[in-house]
């Protein structure tokens, strides 16, 4: 789908509301097929110096198989966006999307936002125990190679904090 932004190009700096529905085809994500309900994009657009800016929120639901039990799993996605479209952009090098004429294509924006916000793995429910085969495997090897006896803390700035304290003591 393409969004007609001619009103914004005629009135630079003025925001105009928009609402659009974009259909995303099934995607192969690392060998798994992920399907999507139609994505709803709502927000506002404006234009300044030929560049069109879209801000708003994308909502959809992704469907795939649970990573542990292979049952259907769904993940609702709600993604805020603030993106720029320009006529003279190289999409591979610049952080903007390309448009031509007075129409802004929404398909690439929608696909990019969805793919960047998919979870690492789908789970059918929070505490999924997994299939019987998976449970048997977990009994044979209860800890994975990356798990330790004592869990490590996940504080990336802890080392910096220790350095600051050492500097204060000196």
Sheet/helix structural class: alpha+beta
| Major sheet description | 7 strands, mixed
Helix-strand sequence? EHEEEEEEEEHHH
Question: How many separate domains make up the residues?
Answer: 1
Report the principal-axis shape: flat
Q: Quote the average pLDDT.
A: 85
Return residue spans where pLDDT drops below 50 for at least 5 consecutive residues.
none
Share of helix, binned: 10-25%
Rg: 23 Å
Q: What can you tell me about this protein's structure?
A:
It is a single chain. The protein is α+β, with helices and mostly antiparallel strands. The protein has one domain. It contains 4 helices and 9 strands. It has helices spanning 6-10, 107-116, 132-140, 158-169; strands spanning 2-4, 16-22, 27-29, 32-36, 39-48, 51-65, 72-86, 97-98, 103-105. The strands form 2 sheets. Strands 2, 3, 4, 5, 6, 7 and 8 form a 7-stranded mixed beta sheet that branches. Strand 6 and strand 7 (72-86) form a beta hairpin. It is flat. The relative contact order is 0.16. The mean pLDDT is 85.
Give a nutshell description of this structure:
With 170 residues, the chain is an alpha+beta fold. Helices cover 21% and strands 37% of the residues.
Topology diagram in text:
Layout: E1 2-4, H1 6-10, E2 16-22, E3 27-29, E4 32-36, E5 39-48, E6 51-65, E7 72-86, E8 97-98, E9 103-105, H2 107-116, H3 132-140, H4 158-169
Parallel strand pairs: 7-8
Antiparallel strand pairs: 1-9, 2-5, 3-4, 4-6, 5-6, 6-7
